[in-house]
């Protein structure tokens, strides 16, 4: 039962990540009359949806009691402003990262973006070693080297790309710099958030509400 749930969850995660990239890419490159939507607006709407989802999960953990939900939100968020303030750093970084992803997808094709963005695995591993004192085995380091090699091959220009290099070099460089910056910001913010979770007893749902709330005002 749990094994099946694990594979189902993995499949849903893969579908969600892939569909998100394709949808973002389509929405940023669609040619139509009128102004394009602001990436900052999309980021704020996404954070609002995260807050709503986390509140529903806290409501479920509170045995579906509105009174208990109100008490938890009041005690853990309103009465602990310093705990919420701790998330100002990762929330600001996540806001920057989410806006950079829209810039990257506006200048790179979906496949190149998706593969290059996997460098966040490398940055997360490096920040985990430096900030959390984690130790990586030989096979883990070897996997990271293979990942870097794969990303390098994806960025290697093909013959068809060389023909249009002068026309698209500028936009590709902007997209590449945006996704690389997003990789570093994602790695640092993720490890910083993990460190905060390990140092406190608050649930991950409460922390996500605090994080998304800070993102809205970043």
UniProtKB/TrEMBL annotation:
<dbReference type="GO" id="GO:0005459">
    <property type="term" value="F:UDP-galactose transmembrane transporter activity"/>
</dbReference>
<keyword id="KW-0762">Sugar transport</keyword>
<feature type="transmembrane region" description="Helical">
    <location>
        <begin position="38"/>
        <end position="59"/>
    </location>
</feature>
<dbReference type="InterPro" id="IPR037185">
    <property type="entry name" value="EmrE-like"/>
</dbReference>
<feature type="transmembrane region" description="Helical">
    <location>
        <begin position="136"/>
        <end position="154"/>
    </location>
</feature>
<keyword id="KW-0472">Membrane</keyword>
<keyword id="KW-0812">Transmembrane</keyword>
<protein>
    <recommendedName>
        <fullName>UDP-N-acetylglucosamine transporter</fullName>
    </recommendedName>
</protein>
<keyword id="KW-1133">Transmembrane helix</keyword>
<dbReference type="Pfam" id="PF04142">
    <property type="entry name" value="Nuc_sug_transp"/>
</dbReference>
<dbReference type="GO" id="GO:0000139">
    <property type="term" value="C:Golgi membrane"/>
</dbReference>
<keyword id="KW-0813">Transport</keyword>
<keyword id="KW-0333">Golgi apparatus</keyword>
<dbReference type="InterPro" id="IPR007271">
    <property type="entry name" value="Nuc_sug_transpt"/>
</dbReference>
<feature type="transmembrane region" description="Helical">
    <location>
        <begin position="174"/>
        <end position="193"/>
    </location>
</feature>
<comment type="similarity">
    <text>Belongs to the nucleotide-sugar transporter family. SLC35A subfamily.</text>
</comment>
<feature type="transmembrane region" description="Helical">
    <location>
        <begin position="7"/>
        <end position="26"/>
    </location>
</feature>
């Amino acid at each position: 039962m749990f094994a099946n749930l694990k594979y189902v969850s993995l499949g849903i995660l893969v579908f969600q990540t892939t569909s998100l990239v394709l949808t973002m890419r389509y929405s940023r490159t669609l040619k139509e009359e009128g102004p394009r939507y602001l990436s900052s607006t999309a980021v704020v709407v996404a954070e609002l949806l995260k807050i709503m989802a986390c509140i529903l999960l806290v409501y479920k953990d509170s045995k579906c009691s509105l009174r208990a939900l109100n008490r938890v939100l009041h005690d853990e968020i309103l009465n602990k402003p310093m705990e919420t303030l701790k998330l100002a750093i990762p929330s600001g970084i996540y806001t920057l990262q989410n806006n950079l992803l829209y810039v990257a997808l506006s200048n790179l094709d979906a496949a190149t973006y998706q593969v290059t963005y996997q460098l966040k695995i490398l940055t997360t591993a490096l920040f985990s070693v430096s900030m959390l004192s984690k130790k990586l085995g030989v096979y883990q380091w070897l996997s990271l080297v293979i990942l870097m090699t794969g990303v390098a091959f994806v960025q290697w220009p093909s013959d068809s790309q060389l023909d249009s290099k002068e026309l698209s070099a500028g936009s590709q460089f902007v997209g590449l710099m945006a996704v690389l910056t997003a990789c570093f910001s994602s790695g640092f913010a993720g490890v910083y958030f993990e460190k905060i979770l390990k140092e406190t007893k608050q649930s991950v749902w409460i922390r996500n509400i605090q994080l998304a709330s800070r993102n809205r005002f970043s």
